[in-house]
Amino acid sequence: MWNSISGDGKDANGDSSFYLGKKVAFVYRAQKEIRGSKIRVIWGTVTRPHGNSGVVRAQFKHNLPPKSFGASVRIMLYPSSI
């Protein structure tokens, strides 16, 4: 499943090309504690730009739950190509 991600500081399509290949994490809190933590993560990857306004598309390992629509995700600055 593809998900569109827009960021605060991204303005143009050139800015979104920096994020291609970066890891994305959707962090959420679950009810049941497993291995000493209630915090869980669904990992994904930024795959391609979406439009001209700096929005990118990401593909996650597992589908995101419906409560994630409009929620924040974390874009990790690795792997780096600089």
Automatic annotation (TrEMBL):
Record SUPFAM superfamilies: Translation proteins
MF annotations from Gene Ontology: structural constituent of ribosome
Keyword Ribonucleoprotein (UniProt): yes
Domain of life according to the entry: Eukaryota
A single cellular component GO annotation: ribosome
Assigned keywords, A-Z: Ribonucleoprotein, Ribosomal protein
Gene3D superfamilies, per the entry: translation elongation factor selb, chain A, domain 4 (2.40.10.190)
Family: Belongs to the eukaryotic ribosomal protein eL33 family.
Name this polypeptide is given: 60S ribosomal protein L33-A
Organism of provenance: Lachnellula suecica
